[in-house]
Amino acid sequence: MKYIVVENKEDQQNEFLYDIADFFWNNGNEVYISSNYSTANFEQIIQECDCIVMLNYQNVCFKKAIKAFQNSVALKKSIRQKNFFLFSENGVYTDAIPFPHKIFHFDTFCKRELTRFFIWCSKLRLFQQHEIIN
To answer: How far apart are CA 116 and CA 119, in angstroms?
Structure first.
């Protein structure tokens, strides 16, 4: 799978940006970080990625955060077909399953809670590349 991790404008969460990107990378996925690319390249990468990962320190609703992102990018049509993962103050949300759902609860968005999320994902083998056996 290909993930793009979108950098947040708030410095508080950017410390977790690379932790999240490393987690996806260490599980055999392709990972891009938004701050490493120009606008044109960023939009091209979004088109190629399966999932968009966002960090939002504020406690905003999933749909509002996604809508704000869609409005900031010119690729509105192709973005609607992507799956989103939103790391927020109180947990991780996704629309990878029908309707946006909170898949993991944080007491607060901190290193300890993020580590708990990664351990939980590893136990369930989430985000891991699986070999296809012929």
So the answer is: 5
